[in-house]
Design goal:
By secondary structure, the protein is mostly helical. It has one domain (about 5-80). It has helices at about 5-10, 20-25, 35-50, 50-70, 70-80; strands spanning about 15, 30-35. β1 (about 15), α2 (about 20-25) and β2 (about 30-35) form a beta-alpha-beta unit. The longest helix is centred in the C-terminal third of the chain and has 18 residues, at about 50-70. The chain is elongated, with a radius of gyration of 15 Å. It starts with a helix and ends with a helix.
Amino acid sequence: MVHARHPVQGSKKGSAMEIELTDYFTIGVDLEAYSSMDELVDKCAYDLAHDEERKQIAKNGYDKVSVSHAYPHRIREMLKTLIPIG
């Protein structure tokens, strides 16, 4: 399950890589993900040196969550699953 708390808050999210993550977000565009502690450390160091890029990724994540993952959208998706139409 993807938790979108950080993009909603307008902060950059770094997450352990999960299969479902890429169903909702573009890694490196909307948020960052890591698959090891070494990769996490490297990405944190990169972010500290590239503040504008970090801010842009945070904004992208916020914008995507605001448009595609608000309650009305999520409810529509659940209803499609529960009540298949044609």
